[in-house]
Amino acid sequence: MLRPRLLSLILIFAPALACGHNDVSETIKALTAKIEVQPTADLYYQRATEFRALQEKVHAIEDLESALKLEPENRRALVALVQLFGTDKKAPPLISRYQQFAKTKEEKFEAHFLLTHYTAQLGQLEKACSLCDALHLMRPNDDPALDLFHAGLLLDLQRPGEASTVLKKSANRTKSIVVRNNWIDAALTAGQTETVLPIIQKELTSSRFRSSWLIRRARAFLILKNKKSAQADLRAALVEITPRINPERPDLTLIADRGLIHALMGNKALAKRDLETLINSGYSTDAYRLLSDTLADN
Amino acid sequence: MKSLVFLFLSSLIASSAIVEEFSRQPYVQLATDNSIRVVWRSRNEMTPKVVFGTTVDDLSSEVPAEQIITRKHPSLGEENPIFKDAPVDTRQFEATVTGLKPLTSYYYAIYDGDKRLTPADSSYRFKTNPVPGSDTPVYFWVVGDSGTGGKAQAQVHTAMVEHTAKNGRPIDLYLHVGDMAYGSGTNKEFSDRFFKMYEPTLRNTVCWGSMGNHEGRTSKGATGIGPFYDAFISPTKAEAGGLPSGKEAFYSFDWGKVHFICLDSHDLDRRPTGEMAQWLKADLEKTKAEFLIAFFHHPPYTKGSHDSDREGQLVEMREHIMPILESGGVDLVFTGHSHIYERSMLIDGAYQTPSVAKGVILDDGDGDPAGDGAYRKSEGLKPNNGHVSIVTGHGGTANRRSGTHPVMRKIILDHGSCLITIADDTIKGEMLNSNGVIRDTFAIKKSGEVTHTVVENPWQPEPLRRAQPQAGPKPPRNATVIIDKNETWSYLAGSHPSGDITDWAAPDYDISAWKTGKAGFGYGDNDDTTEINMRGKFTTVYIRKEFQLPKNANLDKLGLHVSYDDAFIAYLNGHEVHRQGVDKKQGKEADGFTNHDAKGFEYFPLKGISKILKPGQKNVLAIEGHNVNINSSDFTLHPRLLLAK
Fold this sequence. Notes:
The complex is a heterodimer of chains A (298) and B (645). Chain A has helices at residues 24-37, 41-53, 57-70, 75-85, 91-101, 105-121, 125-138, 144-156, 160-174, 177-189, 197-206, 211-223, 227-241, 252-265, 268-280, 289-297. Chain A has 298 residues and is mainly α. In chain A, α8 packs antiparallel against α9 (160-174). The longest helix of chain A is centred in the middle third of the chain and has 17 residues, at 105-121. Chain A is globular and about 75 Å long. With 645 residues, chain B is mainly β. Chain B is built from six helices and 39 strands. Chain B has two domains: 129-446, Metallo-dependent phosphatases (Purple Acid Phosphatase, chain A, domain 2); 480-643, Jelly Rolls (Sandwich). The interface between A and B is large, with 59 and 62 residues.
């Protein structure tokens, strides 16, 4: 029942977090020794990836900046630095620089994607959607992650019908089960049940754990004003999901599902409690958008 | 039984029978219960043909030509090219053999037109998977971090081949948890350090691979492009069971009643909202297998050469992915990355950072049926019923331990691999070291309904005892320096001296072919004057130097003052006078080494040597220096000889 995380596509271009052959700290020491003798952009980049592995963002940024001083058109360092800058105003000049020196199709796509992602991070969702359209034109058969990203923007813009269209097309093309499931969720949000209900029924008969599909069918029943059947499915889903949740350290994906069950059943207090658990855990907001939207609708 | 042993022996014999026409020898991939892929490379144009049959003498079936695809270098402009770092004339042939019966052995041969390329050899065979869900015992091998192309990797492989041959039970499949082609997983590194090394096994046993960080330097999980993705043909459309992932980076497959899940812990989004985790959740909801095995590169629990409390990928796999796997009922999790063998107790819910034992150990026994007894779990895949986590990053590169992980039951610094049997209701795991010795055994018995409660005060592994600097004797004050630092020595590196094992230490031994260089000798720690490029190549260096003693010297006052890493044996005039960190034998036969870092010069008085030495005449000090591991990060040998007053 998770919606695609808005930022998922960025990892396509994330530099490999290439930890060294040995312990990360040892690798950093070794790289530092080499840098002291003969600094190169590659050595700074390598050390930055090690700092990133240790989640030492400040040091990683310093090294990537040093790499770019030595080689202003070092693609790997530039992309990594843009990612680390997030919404910082230092990012756009770097993206512009990349757009200027990008030569291959892949580089042009990557530079455009960085701009799209940055725009989305700023909350300029309409503009980001337009940029996504351009990305699709650049690579019509790209990895489904781009479709998931685009659909996420459309859902943020409360345009589930368009999201459903993007995802359905992608699911047909890629056969990705993740895209298909996201399409089903987007279609239900858009109030479309006809095409997805047969799939849901089929999954219910063939799955070991049925709660995700029971929730989806309950959503369909609610659209079809069949509240009784919806409640029955939600109760069954809750029965199945409860023993799967470790009370001390739960699988948060199941907490998101349980919260949605409570929200759909009208148990707002319990749903809010699960929502708070997700928020307090630092869980990505994308994961509980369906839950928070459902709570808001109620 | 005899026929099985014969098959093994023929595999071993055939291992040296490399077919010249292939630039990458044939290997099998993506087995299902009715199909398999046979893959090979050549740098010649050929008309590929694959024939097969159920007896070695009757290969009467042929793979239709349209089921053999040829992939070429991208510069040739064809679709689905191989990665650009392969030689331009390389062709990769992938034959899809279909219409096979489940759980059946077939033999195959590869032809170029009418010319048979593979020998008439029973080792060119494969076995299809059983029907998913069927009750068939499975025996598989798990290796990690092996890709050095060195001696230790070969020994680990040989140990498995000999062990399985001895027991008359071939492996059904092989999991590799990543880092199979150091240092960057290039085409050449794959050929030299993976395919050549494992060729006799790969030609008849499917290896299912998970990408390590070293392969990740040239291959990308998101795009499925790179030498790793050329080497492995992994399911994207649920060809072998499970749910379609759409990506070769993560996938699942069924083997009988066991569901295997491979994840990419390296370069994909590891968060629960990411595509991989969403697929994992859906796949776990779907499977109706009775056993669940997951494998990926970065370990959620380790204190080996990596620390799972500090490094982002490891933390994220623990915090984000492990809850999904455990709520899906996982039994075993295999990882590598950390160069060590670490095997956990039965655990659940160990997601905190830093890791703690409190509240997460469900059974703190050793899991050994001959010891504390097998771990117990409910039958089927019961959520949060405990799993065993295994770091098997000890497949060939230098091992290292940095601490003690609190969920671990066995921590072993030894090269090796894991052999797992799943039969009836029991999983049995063994760690086989590179000498063919079983160093760890555990089992998980899954029957009935088992409800665990957390062990309040669980057994805890011994903390790592860090090597303390030896409080040995101090070097004498005002000693006469007989041989000083940085003096010139004769040395032999990269081969062993001719003659009997210690002949080279005798004063009259001919060293005219030896090189000369200034001490210290070694590499890797910036303390060496004569750099020796021995990493990955050899472990022993021999050095000799003549010296003279004053006529009135007190011969009982001589001592060696040496900086060393890891071990050495010293000789005076051909007689062994001191050994440090070497348990037994000498030279190429030396064995039982102890790790030691060079921490400055240490003093060793030499006793009982007065009859060996010749005051006023030529004497020879000879030292053999040993590295514990061929891939060790450093080596040092820097001696002085002191005469106390």
